[in-house]
Amino acid sequence: HYLDADRDSLGYGIHLIWRNPKVARHEDNEKPKRYGHRMPDTVRIGTVQYQQRPVASFAEFSEIVRYFVDVVSNYKGDFVVFPELFTLQLLSIEARRGSPAESFAAVTHYAERYRELMRDLALRYNINIIAGSTPVREEDGSIRNMGHVFLRDGQVFTQPKIHPTPNEAYWWNVQGGDRVNAIETDCGTIGVLICYDAEFPELARHLVDQGVSIIFVPFCTDERQSYLRVRYCCQARAVENQVYVVMSGNVGNLPEVPNMEIQYGQSCILTPCDFPFARDGIAADTDANVETVAFADLRPETLLTARNSGTVKNLQDRRHDLYSVNWRGE
Questions:
Q1: Fewest 10 Å CB contacts: which of 130, 143, 273, 305?
Q2: In a domain, 238, yes or no
Q3: Domain for residue 235, yes or no?
Q4: Is the residue at 29 inside a domain?
């Protein structure tokens, strides 16, 4: 018994504490705050608008990354999203300045430390990390712009960029990948398309055919026109496939890093355009070129409602008798 005098409860008495939410609590052992009320059946996304800045060591880079993971975790995020090639700021550590291709290849030496960092953070903070992308050297010696996903259960997935931009291919000798695969998570099925890949509708449709409900698009663009190409295409992918699309980009400058001197970014979380979704098909947006984090709660169930009984039903109304997407890669 929680009270010696209590005999009537037969040992099933309960000591109930009901705290008044209008009265501040000040307890020495109070746990760190976790911000934001969670609605049921939602997936909370935190997309990072990441400022490129010179760093003196990998430890300094790690601390910046850890800070953003900690922030999104404190807001009870299920996913934290980083931009494409945000690891290129590690080139500011290098004393020697080589050609653009040599500089890009130099970042591959940090790939394993990057993986260890992200894997540890995903487990420690109990959060899924869409870890942008980083240069990776394959066994055959080729260089890929490789996206990474680190789940909070310890699983690690990679997604190569399928379409290197002309600049990536010419200056950095980046080669395209040959696989676009869905990833099963505790928050549903997701996919990753890296920047330019979002401008090819076939890739998003291939992911949706595998059951994807959220497509993450880490991007790296240098000026407004480049950014808007990606942004407009991401909004189109959200509408035509009735999925959520999450963009995460770089801002700031890296004067000593070739082809990364300037950045233009406006990270956002996009939805289909229909009554159940956010106005203008934008669940969350950021101010351009300011380091920040944007949050949104997404309901996967709403996608099913829209697909089955929306104002338009893009997926159901496809004319399979006339056209289809046939994937010939892995």
A1: 305
A2: yes
A3: yes
A4: no
Can you read off the two tokens belonging to residue 6? 């209590």
Question: For residue 72, which of 119, 31, 120, 34 has the smallest C-alpha distance?
Answer: 34
Helices (H), 138-223: 166-172, 201-209
Give the torsion sign (CA, 193, 196, 199, 200): negative
Q: Quote the pTM value.
A: 0.88
- Measured from the Cβ of residue 150, the count of other Cβ atoms closer than 10 Å reads 23
Do the Cβ atoms of 222 and 187 come closer than 8 Å? Answer: no
Q: How many domains does the chain have?
A: 1
Residue 18 forms part of a structural domain = no
CATH number of 297's domain = 3.60.110.10
> Known catalytic residues?
84, 161, 195
Residue-number span of the structural domain to which 100 is assigned: 43-307
pLDDT in single tens digits along all 330 residues of the chain: 455 666 666 666 666 666 665 555 555 455 555 556 666 689 999 999 999 999 999 999 999 999 999 999 999 999 999 999 999 999 988 766 788 899 899 999 999 999 999 999 999 999 999 999 999 999 999 999 999 999 999 999 999 999 999 999 999 999 999 999 999 999 999 999 999 999 999 999 999 999 999 999 999 999 999 999 999 999 999 999 999 999 999 999 888 776 678 999 999 999 999 999 999 999 999 999 999 999 999 999 999 999 999 999 999 999 999 999 999 987
Secondary structure element (H or E) that encloses residue 239, with its range: helix 224-241
Q: Which residues of 206-221 are buried (b: 16+ CB within 10 A; e: fewer)?
A: bbbeeebbbbbbbbbb
